[in-house]
Amino acid sequence: MRSPRRSSLPLLDVSHSTLQSRPIRKRDPEQPNLPFDPMPQRVEPCLALLKTTVPLGPDWLYEVKWDGYRLAIHIEQESVSIVTRGGHDWTLRFPSIAAAAKRLGVTTAILDGEAVVLDAEGRSDFGALQRSLGGRGGKRISSESVLYAFDLLYLDGHDLTRTELSVRRQLLEDLVPQSGNGTIRLSKAIELPADDLLAHACQVGLEGIIAKHRNRPYRSGRTGDWLKIKCVQSESFMIVGYEQSGSARGGIGSLLLAGKKGFQWVYVGSVGTGFTRSGAEDLKKTLDQLKTDKPVVPLKGKRFVFVQPTLIAEIEFRGWTDDRYLRHASYKGLREVQDNAAVFDVMD
């Protein structure tokens, strides 16, 4: 039996009224007939640059930071394809999103968004999304996931990447159903004073917010046009081993983690919380197939089992110790190879 799809939790203002994007005028379907642009097979995504403070001013638009898989939805006349951040075809993994895309009633389009599974309070839950797909390398389809669309890169034969975000958003708002409870939903702009925005987002349990420059085109990579400001830090680290335990669930006491520094691996500490019993057991089986006698970090321990640097874990943490180890780390799940997750860069 399918799990009921959660309604999204509205981010409320101080008067407890649901926040909505500003009303816009509808797009005129009789717009001038411009020359058609060829539809790209793939657009490298625009990525958010991590910042500690919210940028201020009327040039910025603010959205919820969703915690899931970044996807591009390619809609053509006879087909829909779903492409991961790393360029892999995951159409079969998200059939409900593909079906919803077909119902949008558009001939050609590319939507940029995040596939998520929502918890009971309407917050995105990365672990639940991973479980819905059968874990890393799993073969399940995700029937519980929804797509929060936040950009429109191509529409009806026209490349929109060279237009400013405000125009792309207007066209996207015309395209995505406004009910807010479908499989494809609009990632709405948050109309709150920027000074209060982050504190409010953290108070209602969100991961953070995304700030986007309204007047910029869509540029691939971390250009600074999009910024992410997090309530709790969450990054991707390479698993380089684990500590055996006779009492911990699944036989893993903790995972040994590393970040990248150039072409070298740098140990950043361990994580021993956030596992389920079944998740830990499955993870141990996978790690045991990657055992190596040549650790990539200079560690010694009687209970340490070292593995080849292959699996990338998403880790939530509260900061760094003075000796540059993760503080209060918690395991969230494995990143997929197809998700093209970037391992954390360790700075001097």
CATH superfamily of the largest domain: DNA ligase/mRNA capping enzyme
> Architecture of the largest domain, CATH level 2?
2-Layer Sandwich
Which percent range fits the helix content? 10-25%
Q: Per the principal axes of the C-alpha atoms, what is the gross shape?
A: globular
Mean of residue pLDDT?
86
Tell me the domain tally.
Answer: 2
Structural class: alpha+beta
Secondary-structure element pattern, one letter each? EEEEHEHEEHEHEEEEEHEEEEE
Reported for the largest beta sheet, the result is: 6 strands, mixed
Residue windows where pLDDT falls under 50 for at least 5 positions: 12-25
* Strands, count: 18
Percent strand equals 25-35%
Nutshell version of this structure?
This protein has 348 residues and is α+β, with helices and mostly antiparallel strands.
Mind explaining what this structure looks like?
- InterPro entries: ATP-dep_DNA_ligase, DNA_ligase_ATP-dep_C, DNA_ligase_ATP-dep_cent, LigD_ligase_dom, NA-bd_OB-fold.
- The chain has 5 helices and 18 strands.
- By secondary structure, the protein is of the alpha+beta class.
- It has 2 domains: 49-230, 2-Layer Sandwich (D-amino Acid Aminotransferase, Chain A, domain 1); 233-339, Beta Barrel (OB fold (Dihydrolipoamide Acetyltransferase, E2P)).
- Strands 3, 4, 5, 6, 7 and 8 form a 6-stranded mixed sheet that branches. Strands 11, 12, 13, 14, 15 and 18 form a 6-stranded antiparallel sheet that branches.
- Strand 11 (233-244) and strand 12 (252-261) form a beta hairpin.
- It is globular.
- 39% of the residues are buried.
